[in-house]
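Troubleshooting: if your tokenizer reports a length mismatch, compare your output against this known-good record of 352 residues.
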Amino acid sequence: MDEIRRIIDRIEPPERDAMLAARRRQDELTKPQGSLGFLEEISIKVAGIKRNAIPDPFENKVVITMAGDHGVVEDGVSAYPKEVTPQMVYNFLDGGAAINVLARHIGARVVVVDMGVAASLEPHPALVDKKIGFGTRNMAKGPAMTREEAIESIKAGIEVFESELERGVDIVALGDMGIGNTTPSSAIAAVMTGKPVSEVTGRGTGVDDGGLSRKIEAIERAISVNKPDPSDPIDVLSKVGGFEIGGIAGAMLAAASNRVPVVVDGFISGAGALIAAGLAPQVKEYMFAGHISVERGHRAVLEWLGLRPILDLNLRLGEGTGAVLAIGIIEAACKILREMRTFEEAGVSKKE
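Known-good structure output:
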């Protein structure tokens, strides 16, 4: 835990003076005050995170996609077999998945991490190997992982981010891949937000009514059997979480400690954000909600985090897709702040 505490202790509040200066500039730009709505708020938040009233361009945009498998899949909670997880990891590495296409579209690099895929993956120069185990255990029968493994998963996420930081990271999106991972995400959401399991559990990859019932029952059983403590996020992660969720949480903490904006993707990324914010509430000030997912529990997660989604496109893929798209919006917001002229600069008369 020492490494995690060290990272948390380094997370400082965004700089208020930079935010105030950014707000003043927004009010002086050639437009009615507030007319660019949420875009203005986004740019001001980035200014505070970057400690710069006019943030520099994002030269290094990164999406980290964490992959892991889940023992609870054996209870029939997913429409797809677990073999899809390693198959999709290879697709990421070959550049053929949605996240690769969208990352190319905005000029971001994709970092693929094996946090706990239930297969031995072939070595690949673009694959980051942080495997904690070959998938978690079935949380409906006992803890998904040990407390030590939960800590290791968070530390692995920290290490992944810090390694990428050496190459340059100006903004980071956090995505996921793992068959069955909406099940532990719903469990985390229920425990951390206090919502009933049925209100935060959706169809994931498309299970039918019977599959949804099995999924809800498995989550309720997991919570009953394990009794995760919402005041102890590592306990929650260890009992009903996933290795990739821990990795996401760790990367978020490390990004905040280095004053890098964090773009939360969908429901699974949101579950990682719940763990990160449970450990360090101040990390929420570094987060942007890339989008609101179709997955019904995502809204409760964002409400708990106090985040407004940037996009609402009926997405439910994961991988970091919605977050990467939102980076383009965040970039646009910052460009307005940086490149648009003030009334004085443009020689335009102000409102009477």
